């Protein structure tokens, strides 16, 4: 059905118009278009019916470089998660044993579990802070 129709005569959609509107606004922000020119072209934009009409609105604008692709956020290391889980488990077991000893002897025993809890926890915290992305 569209065999005899040139690409410039194909009707446009609202998505096509929105893309051209974004390009026109960017051209205005870059200084390629004055506010009056932008208004005139936006008026013509929403009155356009074919791709040829849209092409005429952006024909004299400079070609923009493609937008830079943002870097994906780094995910926390699986190894770091495993180490943190092991550290939490060992800390919980040692703290529980210390509590059982304190309760069964009815005395406050030296908190030796801190040596299992703090030094590895500090090291894991520093490593996690170093791997956290900067904003």
Features:
5 helices; single chain; 62% helix
Explained architecture:
This protein has 5 helices and no strands. The chain is mainly alpha-helical and 135 residues long. α1 packs antiparallel against α2 and α1 runs parallel beside α3 (51-58). The protein is rod-shaped. 4% of the residues are buried.
Listing every helix as H and every strand as E from the N terminus to the C terminus, the arrangement reads HHHHH
> Could you state the oligomeric state of the chains shown?
single chain
Largest sheet: none
* C-alpha end-to-end distance: 53 Å
- Unreliable stretches (pLDDT < 50, length at least 5) are none
Strand content: under 5%
Radius of gyration, rounded? 32 Å
Our count of helices gives: 5
Q: What structural category characterises the helix and strand content?
A: mainly alpha
Principal-axis shape: rod-shaped
Average residue pLDDT: 87
Number of strands: 0
Helix content: 55-70%
């Amino acid at each position: 059905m569209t065999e005899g129709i040139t690409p410039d005569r194909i009707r446009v959609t609202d998505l096509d118009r929105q893309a051209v509107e974004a390009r026109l606004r960017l051209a205005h922000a870059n200084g390629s278009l004055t506010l009056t020119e932008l208004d005139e072209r936006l008026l013509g934009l929403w009155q356009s019916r074919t791709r040829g009409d849209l092409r005429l609105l952006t024909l004299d604008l400079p070609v923009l470089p493609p937008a830079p692709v943002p870097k994906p956020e780094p995910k926390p290391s699986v190894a770091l998660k495993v180490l943190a889980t092991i550290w939490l488990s060992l800390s919980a077991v040692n703290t529980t044993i210390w509590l059982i000893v304190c309760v069964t002897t009815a005395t406050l025993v030296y908190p030796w579990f801190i040596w299992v809890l703090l030094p590895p926890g500090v090291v894991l915290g520093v490593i996690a802070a170093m791997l956290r992305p900067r904003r």
